[in-house]
Design goal:
The complex is a heterodimer.
Chain A: H1 17-20, H2 27-41, H3 44-67, H4 72-77, H5 82-89, H6 97-104, H7 110-141, H8 147-156, H9 162-176, H10 182-207, H11 210-218, H12 223-251, H13 255-261, H14 270-276, H15 288-318
Helix pairs in contact in A: 6-15, 7-10, 7-12, 8-10, 10-12, 10-13, 10-15, 11-12, 12-15, 14-15
Chain B: H1 2-33, E1 66-71, H2 77-84, H3 86-92, E2 95-100, H4 104-113, E3 120-123, H5 126-134, H6 144-153, H7 156-161, E4 163-164, E5 167-168, E6 171-172, E7 176-177, E8 180-183, H8 185-191, H9 199-215, E9 220-222, H10 234-247, H11 250-257, H12 266-279, H13 294-297, H14 306-309, E10 312-316, E11 338-341, E12 350-355, E13 358-361, H15 366-376, H16 378-387, H17 408-418, E14 422-426, H18 428-431, H19 434-449, H20 454-464
Parallel strand pairs in B: 1-2, 1-3, 9-10, 12-14
Antiparallel strand pairs in B: 3-13, 4-5, 6-13, 7-12, 8-10, 8-11
Helix pairs in contact in B: 2-16, 6-15, 10-12, 19-20
The chains are: A mainly alpha, B alpha/beta.
């Protein structure tokens, strides 16, 4: 795509045609396009392939789901797919025993880890978004010397692998005296999330027509007013999208929590517990399926509830055109 | 431009879908990996073992202090370990903060490098202890009271495993005995088979079972499995180590893991070939599970279950396989399953493969040393035995009261450990450099079982031995 198309013309709104289709003078042109897009997208071949892929990708999850309700002896003796054959003979046995064991089977109730996961996740989502919004605004709308270089530097930080930062970061936490507390996880997740967050939010902010910001400035608005009254409302989809992205990443994270917070029950999140669930020698693997489903309930709810923002907002930030 | 947008969008959807399916696959793979009925630990008994508190007066006033212990022993087994620390806490008032993670072996060096080591770590192999001592200079030598306890309670062999470069660092914790063959006593009795006392008798018995199998509907003699996730191959290395002890003897064994003789020495090759008489003989393996190559893909945790179904007769596995049997399996001399000692060439010698974790300390505060002393004492061993009513735990502590052990099988294991005739050797793969012991040796087992010949595998492992 060409750089010239960045800020003028209908291209700006392309990522969210659904929102703009009904308003303004471009409506007619857009609905024509929408029709064309619909025609193309509803190609029966494409739909067929999409359905096949969808089924293929869902099979392991379904298998895991069925497994989680089967008794231990059945899990060990036969595959989950045998339940379909057994439907006719009525030999199927289902129980909630795996869930029972996963939830209450150890010395620490699983609820404790659930709470820890939430305590870890919320600040780890809010901190980077807050900081990234401010930074992105500065990069987009405040002209200061070296801005482009600094932005490239922030952008480049994305390529630093988490793994190489672990020991130096942990050393720093130990020196400051916060090792083994929630602070380490909150800070680490914020650090790792910021480059991408700044990049995405910056691109989205850049897409806001400069005339809007300039008009506000002419009316006497300072940066603070512009930020809260003009930019923020327009950014809601992008913030929501990045929020989900970061939420899922933090909730599913094992490495960062394990390295920085450790495995004690007062700080360990759900992922750490699920990783230990099969026992010292891996003998209790039959409860892993139940543990996995317990741990994905929250991200599933979050994703399903906010998914329209996810696709729309993420594309809006990354694809300028 | 429109096209670009569409491709991008579908690509990110694709990525999301792929992510989800990868997650599911990984979970599915995990759930296919392990096995066994768990057990082992379980609830701690109501009344804890009573100990003599005066021993800890020498450490001064340590009431109210905390000791942080970092182990790989997670629940359900972890609960019994925590319970076994209670007598110490009652005596001294020192709180034990117990942290368990299966990733401990990877995490421990990270924490040490970051300057945040635990007070005490239960280290699973002498190899890791050596790394911690030599590479990170982090482990503190055992204090005087601990040395005294270890001298009183453990054999010189066990003390030696916790010694690095002449300095004694770490007292032994648990003990495992690997030279066992699991079988079904009732099946043996019905068929009129005797428990073999020598290696030749074992081979004769295997042949007899195989012959009977061909003529009738009786199952194959052996079942085996070495699949264990990213550690696939280790159960096979135990088999080889047992054979080195039996065909070449303990002295060659010592030269072998210290690399005084090369890995592809003819004596070692002979041990592999002797193991191959069972593991690579399609008439002997792999009952109910497939051909020889199915050993590589059968989870070690489930491999012996054929004995319960009557599909196979014998399964060589360590004492901790006791915890893998499905719930309701009776482990007893007249029960569903029992184990006999993997016989040697003659009945006079009793080479035995053992393993077990060690207690490494990273702090020398009085309460840490007091706790170290407790863990090395007979008091702890007895308290642990009492705290483990489900069984599946023994210690090499000579002054452990066998009557306190939970099961007959644990007593058999303990008797094997403390038998005068037993020549114990520590699991060699845990003593070799990790490139070999936790790398090419494991992979070599898989190659060997899936068709590569012995010479070729041994040459390959030898070439991977780190040059220093």
């Amino acid at each position: 795509m060409s750089a010239g198309g960045l800020t003028q013309g209908p291209q700006v709104v392309l990522p969210e045609p659904a929102v703009d289709a009904g308003r303004g003078t471009r409506a007619g042109r857009l609905s024509g396009r929408a029709a064309r897009a619909k025609r193309r997208l509803s190609n029966p071949w494409a739909s067929g392939i999409a359905i096949v892929l969808g089924i293929l990708w869902t099979i392991p999850t379904i298998g895991l789901f069925i497994t989680s309700f089967r008794p231990e002896s059945d899990i060990r003796r036969s595959g989950w797919w045998t339940v379909f054959g057994n439907l006719f003979t009525g030999e199927n046995q289902f129980s909630l025993e795996n869930y029972q064991t996963a939830l209450y089977g150890s010395s620490t109730n699983l609820v404790q880890y659930f709470v820890n996961s939430i305590v870890i996740t919320l600040p780890s989502v809010i901190i980077p978004i807050t900081v990234a919004l401010l930074a992105a605004y500065a990069f987009a709308w405040i002209d200061f010397p070296g801005r482009n270089w600094l932005f490239v530097a922030v952008f480049a930080l994305q390529i630093v692998p988490i793994q190489v930062t672990m020991i130096p970061l942990l050393t720093a936490y130990v020196d400051v005296g916060i090792a083994g507390s929630f602070w380490t996880v909150w800070l680490s997740h914020s650090i790792f999330a910021l480059p991408l967050a700044i990049f995405l939010l910056h691109n989205f902010m850049k897409d806001i027509p400069s005339s809007l910001v300039e008009a506000a400035r002419v009316d006497g608005a300072g940066h603070v007013t512009i930020f809260f009254r003009v930019v923020m409302p327009l950014l809601v989809p992008a913030i929501a999208a990045f929020g989900i992205f970061q939420f899922l990443w933090v909730w599913n994270d094992l490495l960062v929590a394990l390295v920085f917070a450790g495995g004690t029950p007062d700080v360990a999140p759900l992922t750490v517990r699920v990783a230990e669930m099969s026992g010292s020698r891996g003998g209790d693997w039959h409860i892993l399926s139940a543990g996995a489903f317990i741990s994905i309930i929250v991200p599933l709810v979050v994703f399903v509830a906010l998914q329209r923002y996810f696709v729309r907002g993420l594309l809006a930030g990354s694809v300028k055109g | 431009m429109r096209t670009t947008t569409r491709t991008r969008r579908s690509r990110s959807l694709l990525a999301a879908g792929a992510g989800a399916s990868v997650l599911a696959l990984v979970l599915a793979a995990c759930s296919g990996g392990g096995g066994g009925g768990g057990g082992g630990g379980g609830e701690s008994s109501a009344e804890a073992y009573k100990i003599d508190c005066s021993k800890y007066d020498q450490f001064g006033d340590i009431d109210g202090k905390t000791v942080h212990v970092y182990t790989t022993i997670v629940d359900p087994e972890g609960a019994a370990h925590q319970a076994s620390y209670e007598p110490f806490t009652e005596c001294t008032g020192v709180e034990i903060e117990y942290e368990a993670s299966r990733e401990q072996e990877a995490q421990l060096p990270v924490r040490i490098q970051a300057g945040d080591p635990p007070d005490i770590a239960i280290v699973n192999q002498p190899g890791l202890l050596q790394t911690l001592v030599r590479q990170y200079d982090a482990v503190l030598p055992a204090p005087e009271p601990v040395v005294k306890e270890v001298d009183a309670n453990f054999s010189a062999d066990w003390k030696e495993y916790g010694t690095v470069d002449g300095t004694f660092y770490a007292a032994p914790y648990d003990a495992n005995v690997k030279s066992f063959v699991w079988y079904s006593p009732s099946m043996f009795e019905d068929a009129g088979y005797e428990v073999p006392q020598t290696w030749d008798e074992l081979m004769t018995l295997s042949q007899q079972i195989a012959d009977d199998a061909k003529s009738g509907d009786v199952a194959m003699p052996w079942c085996a499995g070495v699949e264990s996730g990213d550690a696939t191959g280790w159960p096979g290395t135990d088999f080889i180590e047992d054979m080195v002890l039996r065909t070449a003897g303990p002295d060659v064994y010592d030269q072998w893991y210290t690399h005084e003789i090369p890995f592809n020495d003819p004596q070692i090759e002979k041990a592999w070939d002797t193991a191959g008489e069972i593991l690579k003989n399609p008439d002997f393996v792999n009952a109910g599970l497939g051909g020889v190559d199915s050993i590589a893909t059968t989870p070690w945790t489930d491999a012996g279950f054929g004995i319960l179904d009557g599909a196979c007769w014998m399964h060589r596995a360590a004492n901790f396989y006791q915890a893998q049997w499905p719930e309701g399996t009776e482990v007893a001399e007249d029960g569903d399953v029992w184990a006999f000692y993997l016989p040697a060439q003659t009945t006079d010698e009793k080479p035995t493969l053992v393993a077990g974790p060690f207690i490494a300390a990273f702090a020398d505060r009085p309460e840490v040393q007091a706790f170290q002393t407790y863990l090395a004492s007979a008091d702890w061993a007895n308290a642990k035995a009492v705290a483990t009513p489900a069984g599946g735990w023994v210690s090499a502590n000579k002054n452990l009261d066998p009557e306190l052990l939970a099961t007959d099988f644990d007593r058999l294991v303990y008797a094997t450990l403390t038998d005068e005739a037993t020549v114990a050797r520590y699991d060699a793969s845990d003593l070799m450099p990790s490139e070999v012991g936790a790398g090419t040796f494991w992979k070599g087992i898989v190659d060997w079982l899936t068709g590569a010949d012995t010479k070729q595998v041994l040459d390959q492992i030898e070439s991977s031995w780190p040059k220093s």
